[in-house]
Amino acid sequence: MIHTATVRVRYSETDAQGVVNNGTYLAYFEVGRVEWLRKAGLSYRKLEERGYGFVVVEAFVRYRKGARFDDELRVRTRLSELERASLRFEYEVLRDGEALATGYTRHACVRLSSGRAARIPREVLEGLRPGAG
After folding, report:
1. 93: enclosing H helix or E strand
2. With contact defined as beta carbons under 8 Å apart, do 92 and 111 qualify?
3. Pick from 31, 87, 106, 126: most CB atoms within 10 A?
4. Is residue 131 over pLDDT 90?
5. Could you tell me which of 96, 105, 93, 32 has the C-alpha nearest to residue 64?
6. How many angstroms separate the CA atoms of 28 and 13, rounded?
7. Catalytic residues, which ones?
8. What is the mean pLDDT of residues 3-20?
9. 95-127 pLDDT, tens per residue?
């Protein structure tokens, strides 16, 4: 499943040159990821209520072209890997169909009480599998 979320660049996300700050793209990835999970029928909140969390253990962004204040961007998100205790999402940030940035984030499932790695709960894992949601 590929989900597309829309974000509009806020003035506070730009640097002195008027271009979106490079770290902001990770926040755009987060918007895409949260909306992807919601579309799949899952949510961070429900996961946390069960005592689990997905923590970022790796992030990568390839910058191609800058976005500017008030640009309307599309964040295309897909789950590219799913393991027993980790997952990876891939992203494209687009303006008018042109890729401005691409990248991925890898997440480990942890027990919130201890911060230790844990297997993704079975019902969550089933909701993440292709065709679910």
Report:
1. strand 86-95
2. no
3. 87
4. no
5. 93
6. 11
7. 15
8. 96
9. 999 999 999 999 999 999 999 999 999 888 888
